[in-house]
Structure formats: C-alpha cells, structure tokens
Amino acid sequence: MILGILSTLAAILPGAVDVPWTDPQPSSPPYASQAATALDRLQAVESRRRRHRRHRRKPPAPMTPALASYYTIDGTGACGVGSVQSGLRFASLFLSCGTRVRFCYRGQCAEGTMSDHGPYVSGRAFDLNVNLKQALGCPDLCELLYRVG
Q1: Whole-prediction pTM value?
Q2: What are phi and psi of 85, to 5 degrees?
C-alpha cells in the first residue's frame, strides 16, 4: 500500500520522491558473518568430538574362569602348525585354530595360540602345553581366567 502511494506521488511530482521500482532484497541480520563464523567453529568442535568418540578404545572383555590341564605329547597337533610343545600353545574344543587367548593364574598372565583340539576330559576347557603351564605357574590342574583376543 505504501509503495502504491509513493508511486502515485512519484508520477505527480517527478524527482521529488525516490521510489525503488523493484522489491528490496531482504537484508542479512546484523553480525551475520560473525554468527556464521561462530556456527562454523561450533560445527568444527562437534566434528572433533565425534571423531574422538569414534576412536576411543573399548574396555577389554571380562575374564572367564575355566579349568585347565596340561599335556606333554609332542607332534603337530590338529591345526598342523608345527610342534604343539614349541612356544606358548594350548588345545581347545571350542576355539578355532590360531586363536590368541590371554590366560591368567594367580597374577601371572600369558598369551597363547590355539594349536590342537582337546581336552577330551569332561569339565576341562583347555589343555596347556608345558611352556604355557610353566609361564603361568599352574600345577597339573588349575582354575585359571581367560579372555579370547
């Protein structure tokens, strides 16, 4: 309505009234560039937080108790990975060949590799080779804690 009145006045009195003939462009709010900069900074901080959260280490899985015995038989074992008595190796019926397991017995911990199938005695979860048994300080039969991985 105001624009109509101004155009009428401009037609009657040319040069007296300066009328914009196009709709004015919406102006940006004051400090728009500062607001955009602050928003960019906030987005950068959130991006860093998300990245940091993504690379956080997971806590280790809890240790599980199990009954273990040991064996002295030498040979290749079911996995065919050299002698079962070399290195820190063990036998298991429920893990696949080459699986690494961390064992702990009374404060002593060692990591072994699954290299044979067994034990075939009810109630036992692992058969340790002599090296792993000595590294843990286990007697002939021991209740130890283990974690796969």
Answers
A1: 0.60
A2: -95, -5
**Which fold is adopted by the domain 64-148?**
Barwin-like endoglucanases (2.40.40)
Tell me the domain boundaries of the chain: 64-148
Residue 144 φ then ψ, to 5°: -120, 175
pLDDT, residue 124, reads 95
Decide if 127 contacts 71 (C-beta within 8 A).
yes
Residues of the chain with pLDDT under 70: 1-36, 51-56
What is the SS3 assignment for 39?
Answer: helix
129 neighbors 110 (Cβ within 8 angstroms): no
- 138 vs 71: CA distance, rounded Å: 12
Count of alpha carbons within 13 angstroms of residue 143, beta-carbon side: 1
Chain center to CA of 66: 27
